[in-house]
Give the backbone structure.
Amino acid sequence: MTEDPADRTAGDAAAGPADAVTCAGLVHTFGETRAVDGLELSVRPGEVFGLLGPNGAGKTTAIRCITTLLPVPAGTVRVFGRDAAQERMAVRRLLGYVPQQLSADAALTGRENVTLFARVFDVPRRERAARVAQALAAVDLTEAADRLANTYSGGMVRRLELAQALVSAPRLLILDEPTIGLDPIARTGVWDHINAVRAATGMTVLVTTHYMDEADQYCDRVGLMHRGRIRALGTPAELRQGLGERRRAEGTGGDALPTLEDVFRAVAGSGLDESSGDFRDVRSTRRTAHRVG
Amino acid sequence: MSEAPVAPPTASADPARERGIGLLVQPPQPRAGWRVLPARVVAMCAVELQKLRHDRTELYTRAVQPALWLLIFGQTFTRIHAIPTGGIPYIDFMAPGIIAQSAMFIAIFYGIQIIWERDAGVLNKLLVTPTPRSALITGKAFAAGVKSLIQAVVVIAIAAVLGVALTWNPLRLLGVGAAVVLGSAFFSCLSMTIAGVVLSRDRLMGIGQAITMPLFFGSNALYPVAVMPGWLQAVSRANPLSYQVDALRGLLLGTPAHLAADFGVLLVAAAAGIAAASSLLGRLAR
């Protein structure tokens, strides 16, 4: 279970090297837009950390800095103590990454898709087949392993991508909207596999999602991001309870305990934000939803 | 809510072993130094071969155009005797040019694949692996070379059926393979460089179509450099396709060639292409 967030707030992000992820004063701008604006974040080893926020909050930019896809122009990003700006290759060896898009190669079989990632992570030939088979078995794709990925359902493709990420034994698994567009059964299936592998391997999971129910159910702690910074941090129960207490103190809420979505609205506001996500974000999200749907 | 294990991953090996996934808690030993590059090249080439094994449609459809060039253009111009070829039949003279052209056509549109991979998230996923950008581009370039090489085998077979007097010396054929792979590596890097500049499939398609024919007609693929006007000779000298065709002609037909210069230019061009495409890969990752 998680610790009291009062013990470790967002402000102590410059914590020790034992943290799975540490962002301190991270700033990233695209032209005039400050996508990430002084982000302070620490993710503890072994936890499932949910990074939530509206479109355009800076979640994806932060993830891209952590995964070394983007440079770190200001501030520091560390993964298990390794500097993401200075030690890119060392950081990448610690990561498994599942992007938002359905990124398995449809022209290859499931086994070939996973084998490619075994090769680029330098899995030696003598153990490659066994390791690929274990990664596929971990996500229940053994029977479908030799079928082309274009015959897979959306949930199966997501599980295949999970196998691709797991084959290198990552210490940190980063999932960007892993269940977008999936039906509730497939979503549960994906999360069940993530949790089972995490329980067996002890890896840390950093996930972005728009589904508040998922964050509530599966994340040990969540960070609510808005306008490039973490605006609320803690376990889902703590965040709900905190909002409930504030509402009672202000006399604006009833007796019902707020949901995580209420917390999300309280942080991000419920009005339309003209700067929320760009055309490419929306197109990418719709394309992914269309492909899995 | 899920329980967060407090033990580090290595200490969790037993539950993983019980679940039959014991290997998934042991990170592989990283390759270091020079061994990274060949390993990534092999990985990318293996993917191309696997794709061709699953679907050979492209191989067959791409064989149509070179077959028509040889069958119609080659046989007709052989009868006309309009182009000086140094005493060999025109169809023999043009066959190496058509091999180079069909390989270039595959490579010059390779950038479209990298833009598709960007849109599908595949590129970002590969960029989060311990693969330097230059190694990723080199891997892609040689994968394009493997694809072109298989295409070249098909065109050589068609040329042989049409009676072109080709060499079957294994060493010379090895040289042919090297010339095809190096030329394709350059043209695929040219394509990936343009992809890094224009960032869109439609624009790349337009530019690819705009430069393909000038590259082809501005080379010695269809006629010797000596019959070209001065300005076109200058273009031909700056065109790596000319050096590829010269090498292929010398190796396949035994005509006088400048093999050292040809391979030197192809090597330098491929290296420059890899450097240019690698430097622009970051634009595609954003």
